[in-house]
Amino acid sequence: MNKKDFIEINKNGWNTLIKNNKPFSNTILPEYGPFLKRNENEINIMNNIKGAKVLDLGCGEGKSLEYLFNKGAKEIWGLDISKEQIKKAQMRFPQFKDNFLVSPMEEEVNIPNNYFDYIISIFSIGYTSDLKSTLNNAYKYLSKEGTLIISWTHPFYYCLEVVDDKAVVNKSYFNEESEIIMKGPDKVNLAQNNMMISTIINTATDNGFYLDKLYEEETVLKDDVNGYKSPFWRKEKTVNCPSTIIFVFKKH
Hints:
Blueprint: H1 3-20, H2 40-43, E1 53-57, H3 63-70, E2 75-80, H4 83-92, E3 100-102, E4 116-122, H5 131-141, E5 142-153, E6 160-163, E7 166-169, E8 179-183, E9 188-192, H6 197-206, E10 209-215, E11 224-225, E12 228-229, H7 235-238, E13 244-251
Parallel strand pairs: 1-2, 1-4, 2-3, 4-5
Antiparallel strand pairs: 5-13, 6-7, 8-9, 10-13, 11-12
Helix pairs in contact: 5-6
């Protein structure tokens, strides 16, 4: 799938999901992913959030930023491909209205460089058409002592399917081809990149980061995500595999 089509599918898809106003699986801080036994309140990755400047890549409606602002973040910025989500984020934070920008995360925009104490990407990195450009941008935006936090579906979780109430491997872990997925009760199309753990780490290191921490958290056995029951998120899978992987990167 070419970059232009990938971006267009996601722009239209996310706008449609928000306009439809129906529940869909969504991850918002303090949660780093579905079913995790621990969240940011327990893991405490952002232990210096008070007075911090934070940028959210794929910020959605700004709910994760709201959590961080309530924890003491001083200044917040958000980037999202969906104008419908950015509208909601601006309504949530009228005092930071100009800090919310409509753009794919892989395209460089008018955001301060060497500025942010924390850059977060909570369950959005797989929706970039270009991981290298996205991480290169993040490196530019992040301050010298800053931290980049990425959470995403654990790559092996994508390899599992539930058959007769049992999880079976039905896909190669090495298959990194982009694909169209369907999200929400209306089965809205989104474009997604599947990436091995090594791909994310190596691309980050190629762009000047080093891996500070890696989390593969235990899960609670349940089927609904914030009240929405998704056919993708199944407890039969999380018995055998983490639902989520969390990367914590710092600058060299």
